[in-house]
Amino acid sequence: MPLAATELVAPDVYWVGAIDWSVRVFHGYHTDEGTSYNAYLLMDEEVTLIDTVKVQFGLELLERIKQITFLDSVKYVIMNHAENDHSGALPFLMTQLKNATIVTNKICMEHLILLYPSLKNYPFKIVNNSTQLQLKTHTIHFLQVPMLHWPDSMFSYCAETNILFSNDGFGQHIACSERFMDQIAQKDHIIHLMREYSANILGPFQVPLATALDNAKGLKIDMILTAHGISWRGDYLGMALNEYIQFSQNKQMQKKLTVVFQSMNGAVKKAAQIIMQGSQHPVQFCDLAITDLTKCALSAYESEFLAIGSPTYYGQTTPLVESAIHYLRGLSLIKGRKVMLFGSFCWSDKAVLSMKQMIENAGGTVVSEISFKMGVNEITQAALINDLKKFV
Ligand SMILES: [Fe+2]
Ligand SMILES: [Fe+2]
């Protein structure tokens, strides 16, 4: 496949990243539409690269830089985050960029050297919120955003162009040739992917997000250039900011019910269907036999109510249900939700009790517990319908 072209995305700023059309699993996150690793070259007399790409795209990045300038003219490589999707190519790049200094915060430097010991042989310039990187005609400021989503995460801001380089912030996992929201026909789909990203990456980090938004209030931002997927400018800047403001205030949750279950012989599935049909709220049906956890997380992110069902399987919940609770708990997507539990059993009634302990440990409020032996009879059906009224 030919390389995607470099592209001037703003005055003096070229996109030089990589589009990963093929990646489908990103540390467990199912990226059904691929992703991109967006890196940017800021053309100044002191040329500055902002972020890099995953290791297998290092040569692509290098070729794109060469289309624009001489490698020896690159003076700085700003690293906003040490995770390997943005740093994997850095050790190789530093062998090629003979005059470059790595610019990052102290924690990120430590992470980078732990990940790639060869980097200790290169010059670093350590920055923080009160440090500027003064280039010939551009000034770069730094905004530390710890736990968005690593301790080393930061944003970079160019004062002359009002561009925020937000790394993982405001991104989405999608491989596409468009760069900006205004070029996208299906705008709702990008918002959907942004929420999926928030659910699966930023779930536990609402407080750091609120702090970051507060700290960024004083900045005049005309463009947000992300490190994944689509970037934001013009009328659509507000759309991106609004998504994060809503999430930071927990307003992404709606009166919506996510039903998560696994069924072994059909009884739990039947109970799940009764719950779905009886709900007075919109429902998302997550049969774990066919629904991946990435989609469950997105639905839970938007839902005030969860219903979780499992048969008793050797004295406990099924592995898939336990795994789903484990995943949602890690992302803080059970915390603060009302939860209905339901489960079938043959001779040992344990699944609901086991789930109750896990849900309460995760900060959820159990509002209903319904166990039934073998199959769903009329009494169980009535109990399920009746307990749905607790979701108001
Ligand atoms: Fe990351
Ligand atoms: Fe990333």
From TrEMBL:
MF-aspect GO terms: electron transfer activity; FMN binding; metal ion binding; oxidoreductase activity
Stored Gene3D superfamilies: 3.40.50.360, Ribonuclease Z/Hydroxyacylglutathione hydrolase-like
SMART domains recorded: Lactamase_B
InterPro entries with a match to the protein in the record: Flavodoxin/NO_synth, Flavoprotein-like_sf, Metallo-B-lactamas, ODP_dom, RibonucZ/Hydroxyglut_hydro, Rubredoxin-O_OxRdtase
Pfam families in UniProt: ODP
Domain Flavodoxin-like, residue spans: 257-392
Record's protein name: A-type flavoprotein
